[in-house]
Amino acid sequence: MIKSLEVKDYALIEHVNVEFGTGLNIITGETGAGKSILIDAMGLLLGDRASTEVVRKGAAKSVVEGIFNVEGNKKVKAILEENEIEFLPELIMRREISLKGSNRCFLNDTPVSLNLIKDVGNLLVDLHGQHEHQSLLRTETHIEFLDEYGNHEPDLQNYKLIYTELSKFSRELKSLREKEISLKEKKEVYSYQIKEIDLVSPVEGEEEKLVAELNILENSEKLLELTSSIYQKLYESENSIYDSLVKIKVEIEELTKIDKTFLENNSECESALALLNDISQFIRNYNSKIDLEHESLGAIRDRLGSLSLLKKKYGGSIKSILEYRKKIGEEFDLASNFSENILKLEKQIKKLRNECGVSAEKLSKKRKTIAEKIQKEVAEVLNGLGIANALFKVNINHITAEKVDEDFIPINGKPFKYGSNGYDEVEFFISTNMGEDPKPLSKVASGGEISRIMLALKTILAKNDKLPLLIFDEIDTGVSGRVAQKVGQSLKSLAALHQIISITHLPQIAGLADYHFAVSKSSNSERVVSSIKMLDKNERVKEVAKLMSGEVITEASLTGAKELMGF
């Protein structure tokens, strides 16, 4: 549900902040006062197209912000987490329209795309009137109404599991067939490249080792010269460092006999001698292994040359060579076993097609049974809402897959097109006048009729419908008297299961409000300003009386208003 709506510098609205309650929220006000502007602002918040013309004169930008209670709403939680937005019990949606042309959207203060705002909005609000959020005008939602009413979720989920698997294998088969010609053409090339790479058999990291080894071999004379010199100075010459340090140690031992404080120096001297000895031995061993003949030098240079040639051809590094070898190896194996792979996929697809067809047919039979029930119930409710002789029809059609290579599922031995919801194409049709054939609901022109049809559907689907907030913009268009009373009673019943916000001109509807808001406009020498106020009990009585008698409120209208409201 929506907790509050704040609108700043939008059309005639300078700044309003409305706190809505649970149940039936009614908005009234004179024509032109700004009621529809408030609903337009809500539409903007939910993703309607924006224009800089909505920015109030003298302001830099328009801001619309709504705070929604989404605690326990799993669908909203999933879409927020998918987009890495923190899920909290309250969701703050904000839209900003700047004169500079920028259009900024936020969810919980995180900048988001307009499409994401729309997706979240469609999970929270159904807005009925002359707006894009009329879900009944989106034909793709009709099958959802049908399934929600019939509680088809278990069967639908079972179908979707098979459908997802079938779609996956079908994509693989399509991709494989698209590759067939190109793979056969490339097979010889891949064969040559595989042999070329395998002949060298590069190993990741070997190039660095070979370069280091080559550097040693190419400098062997210098290495021999320097290691010989170091060994002479450290150990072998007449005045070597090792001999000198031995003499120093003997002298320190003499000092130790006189003063024990030299004991530590004597120990360190022994360590130095051991270290010198280790270094000398290492140098000597290294020197003895130096080969000036360089028998392996040529082999290393040849190996590096072969690696360099492969690098130029296949990506510039040994890692890229190995990745390419893996890729063409898989492609070559695929080309070599093409028929076998296709046959395997075709068998899997045939099995899944049959399973998908059985599941789709089971779902379709349930939908047909529920459709008959909905048709009857909607017509009855519409009659009570002032659309007499209404004929409501749920059309369930199936499209035959005519082409041999077209994707299909078999139903009773015949091929049909299918989708994520089965093979049923569901669309609502209606006739509101006796003798007329039903026409697609999306072609019905009257906003008032659309709203009442939605009200009828919501009345029978209320227990299953997941949208927490329904907004009706002048659902009372073209009705009065007894019908208006019926519309009001339907709204009141619906408000027990959903939060309702409804704009009305009729006292029969306004009198049933749980929360009543009045929109008005005032002007000064410079501009007109729209404002909205939540009415207390006495103010509500006066507002309903005004709807009954006009601007001049009489005692009779006040008495009638109280009777209507049950006060």
Could you outline the blueprint of secondary structure elements for this entry?
Layout: E1 2-10, E2 13-19, E3 24-29, H1 35-45, E4 61-69, H2 74-82, E5 90-98, E6 103-107, E7 110-112, H3 114-124, E8 125-128, H4 142-150, H5 153-200, H6 206-218, H7 220-236, H8 241-258, H9 263-289, H10 297-313, H11 318-336, H12 338-384, E9 391-397, E10 409-411, E11 414-416, E12 425-431, E13 439-440, H13 447-461, E14 469-473, H14 481-494, E15 499-503, H15 507-510, E16 515-523, E17 528-534, H16 537-549, H17 555-565
Parallel strand pairs: 3-15, 3-16, 8-14, 14-15
Antiparallel strand pairs: 1-2, 1-4, 4-5, 5-6, 6-7, 9-12, 10-11, 12-13, 16-17
Distance between the termini: 28 Å
Task: Look at the structure and give the mean pLDDT.
Answer: 87
CATH superfamily of the domain at 1-138 and 466-535: P-loop containing nucleotide triphosphate hydrolases
- CATH class assignment of the domain at 1-138 and 466-535: Alpha Beta
Beta-strand residue percentage? 15-25%
The number of helical elements comes to 17
The profile of the biggest β sheet is: 6 strands, antiparallel
pLDDT < 50 stretches: none
| Share of helical residues | 40-55%
Give the strand tally: 17
